[in-house]
TrEMBL record:
PANTHER family: CHROMATE ION TRANSPORTER (EUROFUNG) (PTHR33567). It is found in: Cell membrane. It comes from the Bacteria. This is Chromate efflux transporter. It is a multi-pass membrane protein. Keywords: Cell membrane, Membrane, Transmembrane, Transmembrane helix. Belongs to the chromate ion transporter (CHR) (TC 2.A.51) family. NCBIfam families: 2A51. InterPro entries: Chr_Tranpt_l_chain, Chromate_transpt. The chain crosses the membrane at residues 12-32, 78-106, 112-133, 145-172, 196-216, 228-247, 293-315, 327-344, 356-389. The gene is chrA.
Length: 392
């Protein structure tokens, strides 16, 4: 692992590249992060990366965005986390704001390149599954735990079931893997203290308690907007697509936006790189212009920062305990199973709709897995090849 502290410039450049090329949703993002931060730049070892993924699976909010923020924090402190977040999210924020401003005259929801991007995502996710599976499920016990998680998720797909699987896997892991856990791990280079973590948790709790009261006593739309999106970012588990129905219940029945506008933005949000939570930027623009986009985006992502600042200082101590390492081993195995279930639904079910899609996905997977072509280049190859296939 490269222990040297990173400059904000290098963090910004790396995260911005990911922000322009990370198509495919939260499952694919973990693969892009591994390719860029772990395999290429050596900022973290794979064990630390796996522990960060497990931690972020426990936290509400957008798990993949939190992984990116955490890596930025470990590399460059609190400012590194902010810079990492901006680089990863601003490209999709700008696209979705622009789309919201012109969507009535330039509807991109049915654009042909969307299907090509879904096929790229299928190849990326399979590549991630194989890589993570080798590291996180190296024995039959953890393979069985992963398969059980996938089986349950496919039969009962829901955000709450995912949370239940992770919690049960962690409990089983504390019993099954504590004796084989490696507690001699390199500490996280966290630059903020446990007092800062406790203060962050207090701020989060205070905002959750008082923002609804303030919103009810004022007619100011921006206050109500911030309250709505802050609650969504604080309370939704599962991230990604799970956040969309929760937001829909907040903004459509209130009359802030109609269902047609909501669905148009939903289609576009799936086509852009970066986190799906930037759908908030589109909704904020539709409701209250560009100012609304800024307020909604800050509202939905702020809880992620507060949760991470609260959790990371304590994680170093916990990682030294065999039972907690067992918990993480169980959680990591279940994450592989959850990713396996997600690889089928929604990735395969929405991406592979023809023989041509399967052929293209096979070639793109080979580019990643065997020829070691960078993920961003595979995105370009996939879009170009998809365009050619459409002409045949």
């Amino acid at each position: 692992m490269n222990k040297s502290k990173g400059t904000l410039k290098e963090i910004l450049l790396a995260s911005t590249k990911l922000g322009f090329t990370s198509f495919g949703g939260p499952v694919a993002h973990l693969a892009y992060f591994k390719d860029e931060y772990i395999d290429r730049r050596k900022w973290l070892d794979e064990k630390t990366y796996a522990d960060i993924i497990a931690l972020c699976q426990f936290l509400p909010g957008p798990a993949s965005s939190q992984v990116g923020i955490a890596i930025g924090m470990l590399r460059g402190g609190l400012l590194g986390g902010i810079v990492s977040f901006l680089g990863f999210t601003v490209p999709s924020i700008l696209v979705l704001i622009f789309f919201a401003l012109i969507y009535q005259t330039y509807d991109l929801s049915d654009a042909g390149f969307i299907q090509s991007l879904k096929v790229v995502a299928a190849a990326v996710v399979l590549h991630a599954l194989i890589g993570l599976g080798k590291k996180l499920t190296p024995d039959l016990t953890r393979i069985g735990l992963a398969l059980a998680a996938a089986f349950i998720m496919l039969l009962f797909p829901s955000a709450w079931m995912q949370v239940a699987i992770i919690l049960v896997a962690g409990l089983l892991g504390s019993k099954l893997f504590a004796k084989i856990a490696n507690t001699k791990v390199e500490p996280f280079p966290v630059t903020f203290s446990k007092k800062a973590g406790a203060a962050s948790l207090a701020i989060l709790a205070s905002l959750l308690a008082f923002l609804p009261l303030i919103a009810r006593t004022t007619d100011h739309m921006l206050v109500q907007l911030f309250d709505t999106f802050f609650r969504v970012g604080s309370l939704v588990f599962g991230g990604g697509h799970v956040v969309l129905p929760m937001i829909e219940r907040e903004v459509v029945p209130t009359g802030w936006i109609d269902s047609g506008e909501f669905l148009a933005g939903y289609g576009m949000a799936q086509a852009v790189p970066g986190p799906l939570f930037t759908f908030a930027s589109y909704l904020g623009t539709m409701i209250e212009g560009v100012t609304g986009a800024v307020v909604a985006t800050i509202g939905i992502f702020l809880p992620s920062f507060l949760f991470l600042i609260a959790a990371l200082p304590f994680l170093n101590e916990l990682r030294k305990r065999s039972k907690f390492q067992g918990v993480l081993m169980g959680v990591n195995a279940s994450v592989v199973g959850i990713l396996l279930a997600a690889f089928y639904d929604p990735v395969i079910t929405s991406a592979i709709t023809s023989n041509a899609d399967f052929a293209l996905a096979t070639v793109l997977f080979a580019c990643l897995h065997f020829f070691k072509i960078p993920a961003w280049a595979v995105v370009l190859i996939g879009v170009g090849a998809g365009f050619i296939l459409n002409l045949i």
